[in-house]
Amino acid sequence: MIDVSPKFNTLRYAMAEGVLHGTPEIMEKIKNNEVPKGDVRQVSRAAGIQAAKRTAEWIVFCHSLPVDWVEIGFELGESTMTVRAEVRAVWKTGVEMEAMTAVSAALLNAYDMLKPFDEELSFGHIRLVKKKGGKSDFKDSFARPPRAAVLVISDSTFAGTRKDKSGKIIEGFLREKGLDVVVYDILPDEAARIRDRVQGLADEDDVDLILTTGGTGFGPRDHTPEAVKPLLEKESPGITEAMRRHGKERTPYAMLSREVAGIRGRSVIITLPGSSRGALESLQALFPGLPHAFPMLWGGGHDEEKRWLKPERK
Q1: Which residue, 281, 280, 256, 151, is CA-closest to 213?
Q2: Among all residues, which ones are annotated catalytic?
């Protein structure tokens, strides 16, 4: 199976359909509810709903997921009955297979009920019609990639006695997401140096995203939030809430991280934990939503056309 533990829940939707082929007489029997075994559409509907909820039992690599809604619909033609299934769930993976399994089960039950009346009865053309949800629905396009800076806050790493891991993980993650990492720096746990470096990146260096890693815990030398918070013109509590919630679902220690996040000018500033695992999980919580901040900061709002433009600094 694919490991989906790093993902977070989003609303997922899928529609699938398939077609039953039979004689016009068969379609009339379905329409008039004249089949001895019962109402074909109602029985098939119930079978499809049940199948959608049990998809993981039959499809080997499917994950078990909480299905929130299933609906099965029918469209009768002269010699066809089209079955459509719609599925919704708030979960980490899509519901395409649930929709297609629902259609398959509905068609199989209809076939079973109708086969005594038509030796040429058949079904097929089962396909996915559409799907929504997941990271593919949350992509922002830019004329150029946002510029990012990664600041590692650590006395030992600055002194050369400890090798940096979290900063390199952050740098690699950002590049993978299409951001341009223009600054990678290591600073000691000194509030004044942290504050001056972050302020310079935001005010003078035209950096769109400034990420620090380290100094957000309970240690006597953990000063990063205190250094960064006074620089923020607008705080963004939703960013820190997302990081802590995502982390807390994976380790109880996440609640001890004192991240801050917000905006200075046109720069987004976020303090991440110092552990490599904590930094990675925080980034997983922030993407793909975070890049949408940049078109809003650049004046484009939610407008697809304007988000390509970035105004020059005055």
Answers
A1: 151
A2: 112
